[in-house]
Write a structure and sequence with these properties.
Two copies of one chain form a homodimer.
Chain A lengths: L6 E5 L5 E3 L2 H4 L9 E6 L5 E5 H14 L5 H11 L3 E4 L5 E3 L2 H7 L6 E7 L2 E5 L1 H10 L2 H11 L7
Antiparallel strand pairs in A: 1-7, 2-6, 3-4, 3-5, 4-8, 7-8
Chain A binds a DNA duplex through loops.
DNA sequence: GGAGAAGTGGGGGGAAGTGGGTGAATCGAT
DNA sequence: ATCGATTCACCCACTTCCCCCCACTTCTCC
């Protein structure tokens, strides 16, 4: 399982292409075959999974979701509709569909913020991200969660 | 598990590079492969983990955090966003990202204070540190903690 | 006082990111 | 069915930044 971290900003070009930061690419397993899956994320951003990790996510969806439950069905549909498998070109770039760009507030000729979060990468519009981070500082967030879970002396 | 202690001041150069004090470097395990991970710490400073220790921290995050929980997600994101893996150059230096420098109140061509705290190293702006330590003396702090935890005759 | 290590400063090669162009394939229309 | 237009994928080229190596100074420990 890859472990993404760190952030990088890359520009979406006029053709809707954007380079996946080299730092993130180097985390891909060979099993991913330079292929990724893009899906809408929970907080108006795009989630990028390496193909091999996505397989596992998909297996989890099959297991946990019940298609006879209307709410589950709607959730599944709304995620999978926009799921987009993309293979990196020789420059390490992918194409982002218009639907996903709209969803995340991205557009051509604008920057995209890649954030590595363990087993997936989030793609944000920098504007949306500044709104998001304005809410709380890393320190505050950490202390809140630390109250719930004792991380021991490691962190 | 490494056991850092002591402090040292090193200068950040114009390129944002700073030497990890030799005293701290000598504590690294060979498994760290001269690689460290920098993350924002709970009090406006940078935390430095040797790569092998960070693996354990990360494993703890994976275990304790649930990405279906919005608050956990935000916390993970805000920490990992600025997480930066750096390999020491032949001079024992690392590069500090602008984001982390801002977070800790550091800047290029200014000194950075390295403080060894058992399994990680804290990197402070000397200015911030003097404010911090002006608040309470080691003796007061110790006595406060000793009220909570009996350290026995060891300390 | 000398030798070696530790910390600081600078420069060149290469990779990463960005932009553009051409050929093949798909779709639509006549 | 053929032709045309549009789109996509692959390839090539350029620029910038970063990483790695080399050189110097200072401090420390014999």
């Amino acid at each position: 399982m890859p472990r993404f971290k760190g952030q990088d900003e890359c520009k979406i070009d006029d053709k809707g292409r954007v380079a996946v930061p080299s730092k993130m690419r180097s985390v891909f397993n060979p099993e991913a075959h330079n292929t990724v899956v893009l899906v809408p994320g929970p907080d108006s951003h795009i989630r990028l999974y390496p193909a091999d990790t996505w397989e596992e996510v998909e297996a989890g969806l099959v297991e946990k979701m019940n298609t006879s439950n209307p709410k589950h069905r709607r959730t599944l549909r709304s995620i999978l509709r926009f799921a987009d498998e993309q293979t990196l070109d020789s420059q390490g770039r992918i194409r982002v569909s218009n639907d996903l760009m709209n969803y995340a507030g991205l557009s051509t000729s604008s920057p995209a913020l890649f954030i590595g979060v363990l087993n997936y990468v989030e793609i944000w519009s920098p504007d949306h991200m500044t709104e998001e981070e304005a809410i709380e500082s890393p320190a505050d967030l950490y202390n809140e969660v630390a109250a719930d879970f004792d991380m021991g002396s490691l962190f």
